[in-house]
Amino acid sequence: xxxxxxxxxxxxxxARDNNQDCxxxxxTFTVPQFYSNAGTNCFVxxxxxxxxxxxxxxxxxxxxxxxx
Length: 68
Ligand SMILES: [Zn+2]
What we know:
mainly beta
C-alpha cells in the first residue's frame, strides 16, 4: 500500500474497487471522513463484494472534525 496514515486522525480518502467480478469494478469512491484508528490496517471495504478497495489518495482533514 502506497498510502500511509498517521494514527488517530481523520482523512478524506479515495478508493477504487479492483474486483473484476464486482459491479463497482474500476469505480472510485470518496470517503469524506475516514478515521485512521491506529494508522495501520486502514481499509475501505466495498459494500457489494466485501473486498478491500485500493486506497488511491488520503488527504488529512484540516481542521480535523469535532468528534464528541
Ligand atoms: Zn466491490
